[in-house]
Amino acid sequence: MTDTVTPITKNKEFVQPVVTDIRTCWEEVREGIQNILDRSPSLTYMPEDVYSECVNGRSMLFTSPLGFVVLSVDTDPFTHDKTLVVWIGYVYETGQNNWLNHIDWFEQIATECGCRFLEARSDVKELESYFTSTGWELETRIYNREIK
């Protein structure tokens, strides 16, 4: 696979994502990130923040014809356990495929990164039943209230 992002066709099978230098496909990735931000106004980062995190090695971009994911590794300051965090997951054709359908791949990456846990965050309500029905545990919900 090349280091460019291309849309998936309806009958395309899952293709193993590859680590990709965000500089080689920035326009496509930026567009996807902006799409996520437009739908989720509570997110505080900008596309350029994602770019910076990837370029500076604090996050990893993986691409496939399906879309892209941005992953990072967080370390618990008390236990020192590592967690692979699915920071951003974007598919080009919603309803055609879902990154969460490929949990084995995520677990493989987590193992390679020395992680004990896998974590995903989302404000998409419909994903909760999917997560909990496929072996994920709901640990917390974050509610936020602005002080005026």
Description:
- By secondary structure, the protein is an alpha+beta fold.
- It has a single domain, classed as Gcn5-related N-acetyltransferase (GNAT) (Aminopeptidase, 3-Layer(aba) Sandwich).
- The radius of gyration is 16 Å and the shape is globular.
- It starts with 17 loop residues before the first strand and ends in a 15-residue tail after the last helix.
Q: CATH topology, what is it called?
A: Aminopeptidase
Number of DSSP helical runs: 4
Structural Rg: 16 Å
Biggest β-sheet: strands ordered side by side in the sheet:
1-2-3-4-5
Would you list the SSEs in sequence order as H and E?
EHHEEEHEH
CATH architecture: 3-Layer(aba) Sandwich
Query: How many β-strand stretches?
Result: 5
Taken as a percent bin, the fraction of beta residues is 15-25%
